[in-house]
Amino acid sequence: MDEPLLHRLAVALGVGLIVGVERGWRSRLEAGGQRPAGVRTFSLVGLLGGVLASLGDNDTSAVLAAGILAVGGFGIVTYVLTARETRDLGMTTELALIVTFGLGALSVLGAPFEATAAAIVMALVLGLKSEFHEAILGLERHELLATLQLLLIAVVLVPLLPSRPMGPWDAVNPRTVGMLVLLIAGFSYIGYFAVRAFGSRLGLMLTALFGGLSSSTAVTVAYARRSLSADSHRALFGAGIALAAAMMVPRLSIEIAVVNPALLQGLWPTFVTLALVPLAGVAWVTYRNAHVDMPHDVQLSNPLQLRTAVVFGLLLSVLFIAGHLIQQSLGDAGMYAMAAVAGLVDVDAISLSLAQAASKDFEASTAERAIVIAMLVNTASKAVLAATLGGMPMLRSATAVLAVALVAGATVAFLTLG
Length: 418
What we know:
Layout (H helix, E strand, L loop, with lengths): L2 H24 L12 H17 L5 H26 L5 H17 L3 H16 L1 H9 L3 H20 L13 H29 L1 H24 L6 H13 L1 H12 L4 H25 L17 H38 L3 H11 L6 H33 L1 H20 L1
Helix pairs in contact: 1-2, 1-4, 1-5, 2-3, 2-4, 3-4, 4-5, 7-8, 8-9, 8-13, 9-10, 9-15, 10-12, 10-15, 10-16, 11-12, 11-14, 12-15, 12-16, 13-14, 13-15, 14-15, 15-16
């Protein structure tokens, strides 16, 4: 009795059972004899793949090829008969039979866990037919392109980038730059689709929270402008801006934790302050306006643009090189000035470049102070932007809250970082 072989054959049978249950459930309402393939058929096909894989001593390719041809021929006959009678041209079940045969063979050839995992994933994909179709119907062209571009960055571009120091002073690691671009692009993508899927149902505050993951600047601009035509809800728009600005803290915390988690030990007091002060203002305004129910979603322009990702990667590379040069020529003061200027535009790029360079080019304390400077400048820029676009109402709400956060954050940073 070959117990290991019996175990693998049992896995082959289980693989077919997993997929067959899903296929059988989908065709459960059809009369007996009219269902092309269900639980029993898929279970037997998975077992067949396992049995044929166990027959050959050294080379099983010919036996498996014959088995695939047999299963494929059965699938073709079934497809022709079913399509002729029902006019259903879908061939998912027939293709699933061939894949199930292959997974059954794979389980006997030495990868039972992988075969089982693949069967579960395949059954899940087959079971989500309606959800996939609904998602595709509601997908805009630019959203589809953004999804494909994100996959292009993750699966093609990043693995192809060399993982070694390059450029002037060996300051740039292309693989590291690619990973950081993917991280930022992923945040933008998730935030966009969270607003896209739930925004109109979550209300103003939760929309601002998800929007802050993608772009707190976009939330600031949209809410400040729309507050001008919403006399009775201006305080809520201001609180939404403050909430989106507070989302900078968890976003940066995750980004820095990926690159250089040791920096968070010195940064956390300032980070907590810059998050809690706006959140306190949001809680107060929300409490004061608890009777107001105004669902509202902010329009984010695009979940991801490949051109934007490339520009962000180039900006990171320039900051890596500039940081090394400035540190060597101007010292810490030059780094602080660069962080202040960069914080006006984008706090993520400068923070990531500083966190990455801190491990080799300068002390961690310098990076911590520079990151805080960039965050404070960025917070101040959003406060000014809100007041400029929203006028006096935003000056009394969003700008006031962000100004308090700015002062509190600067005070905590001075006491903790020196």
